[in-house]
Amino acid sequence: MKSILLLTAVLAGLSLSSAALEITVDGAAQRQVMHGFGTCMKGWGDPEKDPVSKWQLETKAHELYVKDMGFTMVRIPIERWVLEGPNPYNGPVTVTDEMKKDPAKITWEAFNWEAAGGRVRQIGRTCEWAKALLKVSPDLKVFGSVWSPPHWMKEGDAKRKFEWSKFGSSSCGGFLSPKYYSHYAHYLAAWSQALEKKYQVPLYAVSIQNELHFFEPYDSCIYLPNEFAAVVKEVGRVFKAQGVKTRIMGPEDMTKFPDRLMSFVNPVLKDKDADAALEIVCSHGYSDGIESHQAKDDCMKLWDMIKDTGKEYWMTETGGGLGYWKDSETVSNRKNNKGQKVMAPGAFNGLATMLHNSIVYGHAGVWTTWQFLSAEEDCQHALVHCTMDELKPTKKYYVQKQYAKFIPAGARRVEATPDGQEKVLVSAFVHPVKKSVTLVLQNHAEAEVAVSLSLKDTPAVSKLERHLTTEQKDCEASGEVPVSGGKATLTLPAQSVVTLYGLAE
Fold first, then answer.
1. Can you tell me the distance from the alpha carbon of 77 to that of 97, in angstroms, rounded to the nearest whole number?
2. What pLDDT score was predicted for residue 339?
3. Which of 367, 342, 365, 355 is nearest to 291 (CA)?
4. Which of 47, 95, 139, 311 has the smallest CB count inside 10 Å?
């Protein structure tokens, strides 16, 4: 008798362990609108010598970005050199005394786009990059971030160091002088107008300041919360007066510090004009501006603070870990252990997990990685390794492609549960016009996992195309999953990212 009971228990255990993981997608439980994915792109040097600058000009890179990856967003720097004052680096001087007296004199026609200085040429190449992408995909959205206002608009104090860079032509730290708030607003309006009129690039949104909490040895500017609110308000006023449609966003502080980030947003919420001006709250996926970090709990806490403000949330910069599939040893660039060998997350434990956390728990409608191209082989802050001769997509490229290629702009994320059970992360999206259904499933288990899908209140698809990224495969088409009555079954390979995509017939 005991042996029979023991055998029954064993068989029951085997049945439980082999049962498929049941995942339910509820199309009626709609969450954020997905504007899309992309990267930043910044010109670095001479196209004759620098591979990143060379490929910025090449159609092959443009088509890789838009057609192969399916990117619908691109971030560009709003550079100060088009309207700079006297400087120790023989850079162009465009600002006049009349502009300093009257901000209305600051117009896009006054910007210097043709100076011989290398910085101005790099600005032009970045704008040409955005223009070329729009030529391939006219629906692409371009947004910008300011690293520093023009140096002449800033000042410093005992707590906020302000200086020209000691090793390059950068305006480091300081803060925007209150007497130039209106000048800065006119400057941003002029940038928006210049992009559209000179380069045929509509500027969809602009961030008031990149990483506004830090002094950096490159272009940077520090804000206090009340200053940020005042500048947002003034930029909103000038944009409205001039008919500038560019949306205002900020503060681009770190997701890891939700309380600090929201300390900049809260004064905005208390002023009706500033509140109306700031449409998007955005953050960066770092712990300190270098180490990639986008933890689930931080994303949840930040969204809990944003959700009742009526504003969108975007994640606008992170490195996402190394370009290799697995975690690997690298040399740290962080201040506290610079030069030391450390373990860094690879594409699977890094970028894949961060994407999921940001989209599902942070409700991000936009995700942009720091750079598309990098001459550094490990691509710690980019997706594609480039030499002067070729482009070599990394594992991070294919992980992000599993999302970007198959989640069309305008899709809505919908509830998919359970998330995290048996180490399977799941997200789902439907597009109301395209009648598409997309699921992205990450299996972080060491073994394959059987899955049973139930699609409720979604477009009625009869099949789902399957694409797979593993250590050996690169967003590879791997057959179709039949769907009948909203039900489907499949097996997720160990340590994999699987995307399912279908259209209603």
1. 26
2. 74
3. 342
4. 139
Q: Of 253 and 118, which is predicted with more confidence?
A: 253
Distance CA 80, CA 106 (A): 13
Spatial distance between the Cα atoms of 371 and 39, rounded to a whole number of angstroms: 5
pLDDT at 2: 47
Spatial CB neighbours of 209, under 8 Å, sequence gap ≥ 6: 145, 146, 221, 223, 228, 250, 251, 252
Q: Strand ranges (DSSP E) for 147-293?
A: 154-155, 162-164, 171-173, 175-176, 203-207, 247-254, 278-284
Dist CA 478 CA 497 (whole Å): 12
What would the two tokens of residue 281 be?
Answer: 């709250």
- Helices and strands in the chain: count of H runs, count of E runs: 12, 25
Parallel, antiparallel, or unpaired: how do β-strands 171-173 and 366-374 relate?
A: unpaired
pTM: predicted TM-score of the whole model, two decimal places: 0.94
Judged against a pLDDT cut of 90, whether residue 234 lies above it is answered with yes
How far apart are the C-alpha atoms of 119 and 44, rounded to whole Å? 9
Nearest to 64 by CA among 346, 356, 318, 398: 398
Measure the CA–CA gap between 47 and 49, rounded to whole angstroms: 5
- What is the CB neighbour count within 10 angstroms for residue 130? 23
Can you tell me the distance from the alpha carbon of 51 to that of 44, in angstroms, rounded to the nearest whole number? Answer: 9
User: Exposed, middle or buried by CB within 10 Å (0-12, 13-18, 19+), for 166?
Assistant: exposed
Which H or E run includes 194? helix 181-199
- Residues sharing a CB contact under 8 Å with residue 23, sequence separation 6 or more, in sequence order: 416, 417, 418, 424, 426, 441, 451, 452, 453, 454
Which CATH architecture group holds 36-409? Alpha-Beta Barrel (3.20)
